[in-house]
Amino acid sequence: MLKLFCYPPLFGLIDNNPYGLKVATFLNLVGLDYEIEHLMDVSQAPRGQLPFISDDGEIMGDSNQILDYLTLKYNLQLDADLSPAQRDLSLLILRMLDEHLYWIISYSRWSDPNCWPLFKREFLSHYPQVGEEGMEQIRTYNLNRYKFQGIGRYSPAEVYKKGCQNLEVLAHLLDDRPFLFGEQPHSIDAAAYAFLACIHYFELQSPLNQFLLEKGNLAEYCDRIRSKY
């Protein structure tokens, strides 16, 4: 049995991290049966990161490598109809989500003083074993990460401006279509949904949340994928 290991749920999402949610959404899109196990301890995960999968004894980490592995092993045809240009655009969108928007989403939870109290309260209400001290330790770790990555060297307004620019791009690309490339979803929709859902369904009221709501097509896109998959 295929098993997905990912972070615990929060705000109604089966994983509070977009990378695990990406894999779960992909599995739902292609209709593969799987079990899910939520972890807090990542010490046994490949590269010390979640998500990872176990598939007949094969352990695979990294969300994008997982999708590539599953596509090849199970001969999945989700993206078979995409043109070379659409495949290139999918990669560009994926890089924007994974390497840029992720950091801004994380920043909104752990650094923004307007969002941190609600995020901490919600997290501890579900996982009290982490404790106040544990949350503060994780926050300190993340604040250091933001500084090393670079985003922590900007003001909140500058950080959110970058994030909203990413959302603007996605809103323009989606336009009035049900999915990014038309009437049917593709693997890039699993990724886009995962990142947007980790904004839209988190009740943090950051500029990201407000901007996403103003771009009604993005909110509708999230609701459409969540209701079907």
Q: Notable features of this structure?
A:
alpha+beta, 229 residues, 9 helices, single chain
Radius of gyration: 17 Å
SSE pattern, N- to C-terminal: EHEEEHHHHHHHH
Number of helices: 9
**Number of strand segments:** 4
Q: Sheet with the most strands?
A: 4 strands, mixed
On the 0 to 100 scale, the average pLDDT is 96
The structural class is alpha+beta
Shape: globular
Give the distance, in angstroms, between the N- and C-terminal Cα atoms.
Answer: 20 Å
- The fraction of residues assigned to DSSP E strands is 5-15%
Helix content: 55-70%
- Widest β-sheet, arrangement of strands: 2-1-3-4
Uncertain stretches of 5 or more adjacent residues: none
Brief account:
The chain is α+β, with helices and mostly antiparallel strands. Helix content is 59%, strand content 7%.
Describe this structure as you would to a colleague.
With 229 residues, the protein is an alpha+beta fold. 59% of the residues lie in helices and 7% in strands. It has nine helices and four strands. The protein has helices at residues 18-30, 63-73, 84-110, 116-126, 131-149, 156-174, 187-200, 207-214, 216-228, and strands at 3-6, 35-38, 52-55, 58-61. A four-stranded mixed sheet has the order 2-1-3-4, with helices on one face. Strand 1 (3-6), helix 1 (18-30) and strand 2 (35-38) form a beta-alpha-beta unit. It is globular, with a radius of gyration of 17 Å.
